[in-house]
Amino acid sequence: MGRIAGMQWILRKMTIDGQEYELADERPSIQFESDGKLSGFASINRFFGSMQIDNHGVVKWTAPFGSTKMAGPPELMQHEGSFLDALQKTERLSTERIHLYLQNSDGRTELVFYVPVK
C-alpha cells in the first residue's frame, strides 16, 4: 500500500465489460492512505471507503462506498455511477511507473489512473 498511498491518482481510461467509456471533463480521482482508507472525486461527488490489498495485488473492498449526495447534469451522474460501480467490482491492483491499474478478475473491466508529473 505504501507505494500508492498519499498520491492523487486521476482516471485516464475506463473500460467496463470490454467497452471503453468516453471520460467526462470532470475526471474522477482517488487517493489511498496507508491504513487502507481511500477517498476521491467521482465526477460530481466526493466518495470514501476502505480496502485491503495483499502482496499479490488482490483487492478486497471492505464495505460499500459512502459519498456526498449532490446532483448534477444527467450525463455526469451516469458517468459517476458507472465509475463507482466499476471501481467496486475491481479485484486486482497493479502499478507501472506513473500508472495504476484496477481490474476485475477477467480483465474486461479496467480503470487506469495516472499521477500527474510535476
Number of strands: 10
Q: DSSP helix count?
A: 1
The name of the CATH topology is: Lipocalin
Mean pLDDT: 94
Look at the structure and give the CATH class.
Mainly Beta
Q: What is the percentage of strand-forming residues?
A: 35-45%
Q: Which structural category fits the helices and strands?
A: mainly beta
Q: How helix-rich are the residues, as a percent range?
A: 10-25%
Largest sheet: 10 strands, antiparallel
Compact summary:
With 118 residues, this protein is mainly beta.
Verbal overview:
This protein has one helix spanning 74-89; strands at residues 8-16, 19-21, 29-32, 37-41, 46-53, 59-61, 66-67, 92-96, 99-103, 110-114. It is mostly beta strands. Strands 1, 2, 3, 4, 5, 6, 7, 8, 9 and 10 form a ten-stranded antiparallel beta sheet that branches. It is built from one helix and ten strands, in the order βββββββαβββ.
Please supply descriptive tags for the structure shown above.
118 residues, mainly beta, Lipocalin, ten-stranded antiparallel sheet
Give the SSE map:
Blueprint: E1 8-16, E2 19-21, E3 29-32, E4 37-41, E5 46-53, E6 59-61, E7 66-67, H1 74-89, E8 92-96, E9 99-103, E10 110-114
Antiparallel strand pairs: 1-2, 1-3, 1-10, 3-4, 4-5, 5-6, 5-7, 8-9, 9-10
